Fold this sequence. Notes:
Aspartate Aminotransferase, domain 1, homodimer, Aspartate Aminotransferase, domain 2, 2 domains
Amino acid sequence: MNLMTADRASLEAMRQDLLAKFEACKAKGLKLDMSRGKPSKAQLDLCEGMLTVLSKNEDMFEGKTDTRNYGGLEGILSCRQMFADMLEVPVEWVMAGGNASLTMMYDTMMRLWVFGAPNGTPWCKEEKVKWLCPAPGYDRHFTICQQLGMEMITVPMLDDGPDMDMVEKLAAEDASVKGIWCVPKYSNPEGKTYSDETVRRIATMKTAAADFRVFWDNAYIVHHLSDDQDSLLNIFEVAKEAGTEDRILEFCSTSKISYAGAGVGAMAASPANIEWTKKIMTVQAIGPDKTNQLRHVLYFKDAKGIEEHMKKHADLLKPKFDMVLSMLESNLGGTGAGTWHTPKGGYFISFDAMPGCAKRIHALCKEAGVVMTGAGATFPYGKDPQDSNLRIAPSLPPVEELEAAAEVFCTCALLAAVEKRLEA
Amino acid sequence: MNLMTADRASLEAMRQDLLAKFEACKAKGLKLDMSRGKPSKAQLDLCEGMLTVLSKNEDMFEGKTDTRNYGGLEGILSCRQMFADMLEVPVEWVMAGGNASLTMMYDTMMRLWVFGAPNGTPWCKEEKVKWLCPAPGYDRHFTICQQLGMEMITVPMLDDGPDMDMVEKLAAEDASVKGIWCVPKYSNPEGKTYSDETVRRIATMKTAAADFRVFWDNAYIVHHLSDDQDSLLNIFEVAKEAGTEDRILEFCSTSKISYAGAGVGAMAASPANIEWTKKIMTVQAIGPDKTNQLRHVLYFKDAKGIEEHMKKHADLLKPKFDMVLSMLESNLGGTGAGTWHTPKGGYFISFDAMPGCAKRIHALCKEAGVVMTGAGATFPYGKDPQDSNLRIAPSLPPVEELEAAAEVFCTCALLAAVEKRLEA
């Protein structure tokens, strides 16, 4: 039934049905978590072999480097090479770090904030710093800007990436606009991949700020769901031609390849930015956990090995995505209660509910024992102007639980939509 | 021969002897490194068993916590408990972090700098921030202050810790004095341990700044060289009585217990400071490498296990310290070329050369293939007013190499002193 055209009596009857269904859901006493993009136990179990690649003292060396000892700010060479091949950049452009690219992004932002870009003013000394935030986007990105008191400007996500007309205009006209967050491949939460044209425009656009920075969070670079894959233009290739390579800071990690909490993060950047990073970072750190880096290199061998390994993740994730998508289709298709699309990779399904319904759906789900990412979290300041977007993270629960959770979600989405229509 | 009383002819003859000896040293083509407090391969080898405590998927849990997944900003409970027992504080006061307490100190300083202490102004907004630096001290501490543009005030180290009359006066009278660096046990580089009285005075002194912070870097807390050990008063006990516990931030790590580059760092602080840390840190990180923390807990079991393990380090380190000290005594004793003392723990022997000789000794050693920590490094801004202090780090080289290095050092120290006397 299409809720937009249904008459009041039908909506009222539907509401009664849905309330009964909702109570039945509640009675099951579920306790399910779809709030974060966490790998499942089965995914984490895939890497068991990594635990034993280092088992003897003589294993701990990378060439002459004893990975157990101090030093090596940029990470061990073989690990940097593995990331370099994955990101398609020269190894000199790569630093391998600790267990989180989020921390590398935060620390990089902090360096810009406190010390400024090479030849730039510290951003904390600027009267105002504005930041472009394609939305829906990743809540943890936005929180970094918010903590520093930047003014976040929401840029709508179109099908091929951020609204580049808006991005170009703001970047070109306002010198206080210092940068942009991008998750260019299988974006969080929508699973969209930037088009070549979008990548080109980001790399080559005019910026009023000489120290404009693109935080290119390539978190899902090899995180396909099947052989039907998106491909992303290498932004550094374009930037090098345009002479804008200092604008780009690229990040990735093995958090969703090996272990979410015990993986290795990496940053790729131009030689000038790497030198700048090391110069400031050498006061903060002596070196990353090189032993864990070596563990990764010995287990995966190279970027090709990572690619192969990711197929095992896809085999575990694809059925979960398919199940949620099919539940959405069968329960909500044609109702007008919401729209969604089918990602080819990444960790999320983005759901756009009937406007004004997201918070209500979130609350209803919670009441029925299903925890979702907070409504609004995908927008700057946690405020979704339409109160519409919800992020579904299907990775963590086993597939049976996920089915129960998806049923709850569909029931709540429909119920909220019916209520909204009845209010009208 | 006492150089201070020797006549010119004797000095001249001695110089010729020493120059010949120096050339003989050079001819050996040594390449030895005594610059940093790095554990030796033999020390790192002690922990081989830690590599295999996690070898199966089912090993990866701490209770219900899957250490491989995201989360747990404060570290896993059992690891925090191990540090809590070591530091003699409640487990709620402890956060276990990544591979470096240096990074935890830097990040804490950065939080104070950018966001301010609880209820405080961000230090970056203050007109001036001054910091008390007991010296000789740890160069990496000083570099943090220098990077942020703080004004470092050198406080002389006495036998029982920093000159507390000076510390108390500066802290009480000047509100821009925001804190002090302390390595209270087996201090870097002198190996001195603060007396109970010094600890009490630091914990209870009046401070003009309400947000004064003591960075209590307890880096060598269990790093004894034998059973003849120093003991340090628990500063939190005193501070709690005085109601000043928010002033203290304590740091330590397993860098010189397990692996220098792949250990676990920890911070102990009052509940108010822990809450403040987590509130800011949650934007920077999702959680530390809990898997490596679990590895440590399973291997060492508890604080007692660490204590036992440290005896093996002592067995390796003590002969090296003894050898260097005996070389110093036999070559330099009674000459007036320098003074030193005999630490009961830590990683260094601090050598006070005849004033005006440290840089020269450093250069001579380098010429003969022995790399020492830079002269002056143990003082703020790298400037030793007396050009006298040198830090000897005996841990890294095998004992035979160390003997060669110590011979070079003694030769250079004597030569520099003789030269200095001949200038007079």
